[in-house]
Amino acid sequence: MDASTGNAGPRTRRLHRKVIAISIGAALGGFLFGFDSSVINGAVDSIAGEFALSDAVTGFAVASALLGCAVGAWFAGTLADRLGRVRVMVISAAVFLVSAIGSGFAFGVYDLIAWRIVGGLAIGAASVIAPAYIAEVAPAAFRGRLGSLQQLAIVTGIFAALLSDESLAGAAGGASEELFLGLEAWRWMFMVAAIPAVVYGGIALTLPESPRYLVERHRDHEAAAVLTEYTGEPDPQGRIAAIRSSLAGDEHLSLADLRGTSFGLKPIVWTGILLSVLQQFVGINVIFYYSTALWQAVGFDESDAFTTSTITSLTNIVVTVIAIALVDKIGRRILLLVGSAGMTVSLGIMAIAFSQATLDAAGDASLPGAWAPVALIAANLFVVFFGATWGPVVWVLLGEMFPNRIRAAALAVAAAAQWLANFTITMTFPIIAGWSLAIAYGFYAAMALVSFWFVLKRVRETKGVELEDMPEEASLA
Predict the structure, then answer these.
(1) Is the model's pTM score more than 0.85?
(2) Which of 163, 185, 212, 306 has the fewest CB atoms within 10 Å, i.e. the most exposed one?
(3) Domain range for residue 403?
(4) Would residue 176 count as lying in a domain?
């Protein structure tokens, strides 16, 4: 008996090329996510100099988009249930386009922050819709690989942003130098984001609606067409019946329906929230938001720091591809455990390395002897372990771990928590780093260790389970 389907014998359905295509299209929202998250990397120092910012204000300028992301993620589930997944994608692309142009023409730091928050609304919504949509169109046997496309798109967006930043700064002779039309290179770094926004919006318009949304709206004929044409479902009517059963009673579902006996929420919702928070509390985005400034602080010039950050990002893409190959073979749980262990060790080494840093008369840090390459190697090992495990797998789990009737709302809450955690880490890093980089990376190492314990005690395997069969305690040990 197949546990995931309830039918005798395993499903042998092959992966339909059209479901790959629409999953890639939806995952492009992750590209915007990654691009917007990292595009400010090459502009941090220039913005701080342009507007004479303190460390605290610089941190807020970098992190401000994440507040918008949290709000966008929070409301995305409700919007997706009312308007449909595809319409929310299109709206997100349009809002992000406006934000990219506005950020490039910002006349002050508060103006820039406002435009970054607007862009965050779009990114937060896309971060919820993409994994939900992919999980809802993907066959269970391939859901992990297709769900991982979200993270692949994110890290590709990060790489593209860093490469774009490096190219623009190089062409201008520095991020603060004029490039075109009397505008500095750092302004063009933001405006280039308009290109992927237009591409994402155009592709989103071609995507079919999620069959689960269509069934919820009693558009069974359209749902059957999507299941047959795009996913290769051999029994669309049977699948529609299973979807309808799993959706029973959710016509008026709201965030209030996530309430439970565990500190006010259902246990499965807390599992998603804590997975999201721990994914950010290991400090991965410090590497991608501040890496250029970080490597300059330990002796690299601006050009070399850009190149080092770009190489790190490329490494992240490669290991994400490895994760895609493994997630449906060895499962989600073991990947998370391996990642937690590897991140704990690599971050611990970084903490030790930066504890050896010395400060010059200007207050800039430098690493003596072999500690600089040790820190660089440890940072890249951290990226490898995160990129092959926690990066893609958490997004896969968030897209699939919740039962159909609460998926959109629960995913919205978990994603909002992730963005708030991201904001907290991003905002506090410049302040903590001003005290000691060793303290910062020591904290991230401790969080990686906590993540290992959390997965060991609280997360179960979801590989191969149909979405319609996800119980509300599926992720609890």
Answers:
(1) no
(2) 163
(3) 17-207+249-469
(4) yes
